[in-house]
Write a structure and sequence with these properties.
By secondary structure, this protein is of the alpha/beta class. The chain has helices at about 10-20, 35-40, 50-60, 65-80, 100-105, 125-130, 150-165, 185-195, 210-215, 245-250, 255-265, and strands spanning about 60-65, 90, 110-115, 135-140, 170-175, 200-205, 225, 240-245, 270, 270-275, 295. A 7-stranded parallel sheet has the order 1-2-3-4-5-6-7. Strands 8-9 form a two-stranded parallel sheet. Strand 1, helix 4 (about 65-80) and strand 2 form a beta-alpha-beta unit. The protein is globular. The protein starts with 7 loop residues before the first helix and ends with a strand. Residues about 275-299 have low confidence and may be disordered.
Length: about 300
């Protein structure tokens, strides 16, 4: 049996593992990137059949590291507009002015991972974000040298707040930096609090108590609050647990709705409570349980 006799759906499934990029930013040095790209391009050069099948897969997940890559992608989209329909996941690690036009062309993106810009100026990226109506998952990152008080990052945050409230399919948001009471985050926090389709929020554990996550927990649509450094989409039992001894978690357990959301999305080591304190039980009339009954939260 030759490879040409394989069902095309099977060939597509096999090529997907080799061609589709990971949406998670690489932790390796930047000089590894060309090698990774050549590895993914290789299947496209095997034959005309492989090229036809693999090109849409190659553009399924686009990770842009530099403004130069952004310009190259824009040229490819202008040369072959049909490629825009193949892009489902977009990762912008260094937002540039070229990305404005790219975002306007990619109407079918359902996953956006964006790092806030460093520039203390607005270059129009905020306006382009308003056209993303099909988003299902949003990831927001911030570099160590990025200050939220600057105009560029603040404008993008305000635009992303509008995206959160206007996208009917957006059910998962990851904020890859701690949510604090910073005034620059107010529009984003308000959006997370009122988003009617948001079910899962991922963010690091705050170092100290602040009412930010408590306010967000009032969103009736929210089902899980995933805290910790491991912000992947894995289920709670497969993520690294956090310690209950942190100042934030010690205070959070005093708030029923907030603690229930944390239990639903976070594995907490050492967080013990009476069995009847789960939010689904009427605390005014708790069921009769053994006075020594306890549970270890595993979610």
């Amino acid at each position: 049996m030759s490879l040409a006799s394989f069902p095309e759906e099977l060939v597509e499934h096999i090529l997907a593992d080799a061609v589709i990029a990971s949406p998670a930013p690489s932790l390796r040095a930047s000089w590894h990137t060309p090698l990774d790209l050549r590895t993914r391009v290789a299947p496209l050069l095997v034959s005309s059949s492989f090229h036809r099948i693999a090109v849409p897969l190659f553009y399924h997940t686009v990770v842009i590291h530099t403004p130069g890559q952004s310009k190259a992608l824009l040229q490819a989209l202008h040369k072959q507009p049909s490629l825009a329909r193949s892009v489902r996941r977009l990762v912008l690690l260094a937002p540039a002015e070229t990305d404005i036009e790219i975002l306007q062309l990619l109407a079918h993106v359902h996953y956006l991972d964006i790092t806030l810009p460093l520039e203390d100026r607005e270059f129009g990226l905020a306006g382009a974000l308003h056209g993303l109506h099909n988003l299902e998952e949003l990831v927001i990152r911030k570099g160590a040298a990025t200050y939220l008080s600057q105009r560029g990052p603040r404008a993008v945050l305000d635009a992303l707040a509008g995206v959160i409230t206007s996208c009917p399919k957006l059910d998962s948001v990851t904020i890859a930096f701690p949510l604090s009471a910073d005034h620059s985050l107010s529009p984003l926090v308000d959006a997370l609090t009122s988003a009617s389709s948001l079910t899962t929020l991922r963010t690091p554990v705050p170092s100290f108590w602040s009412p930010t996550l408590l306010n967000i927990s009032s969103n009736p649509a929210l089902q899980a609050l995933c805290l910790g450094d491991d912000l992947s989409g894995k289920s709670a039992e497969h993520r690294r647990p956090v310690m209950a001894s942190s100042l934030f978690l010690s205070a959070a357990r005093q708030h029923g709705r907030l603690s229930d959301l944390i239990r639903a999305g976070t594995s907490v080591v050492g967080w013990r409570s009476r069995a009847w304190t789960m939010g689904s039980v009427d605390l005014g009339n708790p069921p009769a349980v053994n006075a020594e009954a306890r549970f270890d939260s595993s979610c």
